[in-house]
Write a structure and sequence with these properties.
Layout lengths: L6 H12 L11 H17 L5 H6 L7 H32 L8 H16 L3 H5 L4 H16 L1 E6 L10 E7 L5 E10 L9 E6 L11 E8 L12 H18 L19 H8 L5 H7 L11 H13 L1 H20 L6 H11 L16 H4 L10 H18 L6 H12 L7 H9 L5 H7 L8
Parallel strand pairs: 3-5
Antiparallel strand pairs: 1-2, 2-3, 4-5
Helix pairs in contact: 4-5, 4-12, 7-8, 7-10, 8-9, 9-15, 12-13, 15-18, 16-17
The structure holds zinc ion.
């Protein structure tokens, strides 16, 4: 969809893709989805709620479905504006090339890539040469030391489940008091799940005795020769910091009960510490010390970093419209208790929000695995947007202070968020940190969307 010059072929691939689960064959999912929705509505009714969304939100940070819809609406308008601008830049390329057509959904990625290349000219391979896995791990340790006074000492006398796994004892670097163990399992191997994630092998607790947390970060990098640096992409480096944020959330926990420990917070809140930590990768402090060219040892230049940032923001209109349209449909599906016709329902919701014709939902109803493969993200797809807002708003606390390494702010983050697990209502916890509820304006600023003056 991004690289093929054959427009007819793109259209064909697109049609097949968006009709998954929606063809006249035995894999059509519509009837199954409708019965899942009916059963959920029934379940909510039995539990004393008006609809499934209200039940599901009752233990989330947002609490009220209307709040999530309000947030979606507030981001929707500027995102659509952004899409309009992007589409006109793409249309200009089409016209200049002598193409006699309007941008269609199967053209979007293809022409967006052309605009991106022309505007930012980024070579991912150039960036990669500065991103050595072990250096970045040291950079994460250093960041945790600067922000939260944590120290890391590699230990060799604990059991590991594979020879690739290494372990560090984590302590308070001022007092030397040990707070937990961090396992690092970076390499791909046969039988390992793909992607990157954090695991809590033992949750911190002190019911009977003080039990320290044991957490791991797991990724799937390709192991090089022992004398060769493992080079990773900017996206992977961001993910590395992200997962380390989850690990810190587990390690810094200081509560009594294991069920309320570390990352056991609401689903729309749990990505906050992890997304927040991603910001430190792009700080000059970290890049100058740890993003060093694998041959020359030169640090990654700030101008290159700025170009990465701008290029990352470039297609935010598309990404936001794609995901928020899915969030709208998800929430509305779970606010209704009537039997729906998936096609009609999708059409109705999308026309209510004036969906741009050049983009389709990221997940159409017949293929919306997030919300139908289990109850986990049902009436919960908004969580990504919600976490984005919290994260953007929280990072501004540092920017309003003395910058990313403002000690007062990081100490407050430790005290009010990272150490308290799920002991306090998540919304209250956030306000303890920030002094106010998360504000969606912060996200608009982070994504370069126009912010309306109040
Ligand atoms: Zn995460």
């Amino acid at each position: 969809m991004t690289f093929s010059d054959q427009r007819k072929l793109r259209e064909q691939a697109f049609e097949i893709f968006v009709k998954r689960g929606d063809n006249y064959n035995s894999n059509n999912t519509n009837a199954t989805l409708v019965s899942i929705l009916q059963l959920r509505a029934k379940k909510a009714e039995i539990l004393g709620f008006k609809n499934f969304a209200e039940w599901s939100l009752s233990n989330k940070m947002a609490k009220d479905p209307q709040k999530t819809l309000d947030l979606m609406h507030s981001v929707w308008k500027p995102a659509v504006e952004k899409v309009k601008n992007d589409v006109s830049a793409m249309q200009k390329i089409v016209d200049d090339e002598g193409g006699n057509f309007k941008i269609q959904p199967w053209d979007y990625r293809y022409y967006a890539e052309k605009v991106r290349k022309a505007k930012y000219d980024l070579d991912q391979n150039e960036i990669k040469q500065y991103l050595q896995l072990e250096n970045l791990r040291e950079g994460m340790f250093w960041t945790a030391g600067e922000l939260f006074d944590l120290g890391f000492k590699q230990v060799f006398d604990v059991p590991v489940y594979h020879p690739d796994v290494r372990v560090w004892e984590v302590n308070n670097k001022n007092t030397g008091v040990v707070i937990g163990l961090w396992y690092f399992d970076p390499y791909a191997r046969v039988g390992k799940r793909s992607g990157a994630w954090m695991n809590s092998h033992r949750d911190q607790q002190k019911i009977k005795e003080n039990l320290l947390p044991i957490v791991s970060n797991n990724c799937n990098f390709i192991k090089g020769n022992s004398n060769e640096a493992v080079l990773i992409s900017w996206d992977d480096a961001t993910t590395l910091f992200h997962e380390f944020g989850h690990a810190l959330h587990g390690l810094c926990s200081n509560v009594t009960y294991p069920s309320l420990s570390g990352t056991s917070v609401a689903r729309d809140y749990v990505e906050f510490p992890s997304q927040l930590l991603e910001h430190w990768l792009a700080t000059p402090e970290v890049l100058n010390k740890f993003a060093l060219h694998y041959k020359t040892n030169e640090p990654l230049s700030q101008s290159l970093v700025e170009r990465i940032g701008k290029a990352a923001n470039f297609n935010e209109g598309f990404a936001t419209v794609e995901t928020i349209s899915s969030s709208f449909v998800d929430m509305k599906l779970h606010l209704t208790t009537e039997t729906v016709d998936p096609h009609e329902f999708e059409k109705k919701v999308l026309s209510e929000i004036n969906m741009p014709s050049e983009i389709v939902m990221r997940h159409r109803i017949p293929q919306f695995a997030h919300i139908f493969s289990s109850d986990g993200y049902a009436a919960g797809y908004y969580s990504y947007l919600w976490a984005d807002v919290i994260n953007a708003d929280a990072y501004e606390a540092f920017l309003e202070g003395n910058g990313p390494f403002d000690k007062n702010v990081s100490e407050r983050l430790y005290k009010t968020v990272l150490s308290v697990g799920n002991m306090i209502d998540n919304e209250e916890m956030y306000e303890n940190f920030r002094g106010h509820a998360p504000q969606s304006d912060a996200l608009m600023r982070a994504r370069n969307f126009p912010v309306e003056k109040q």
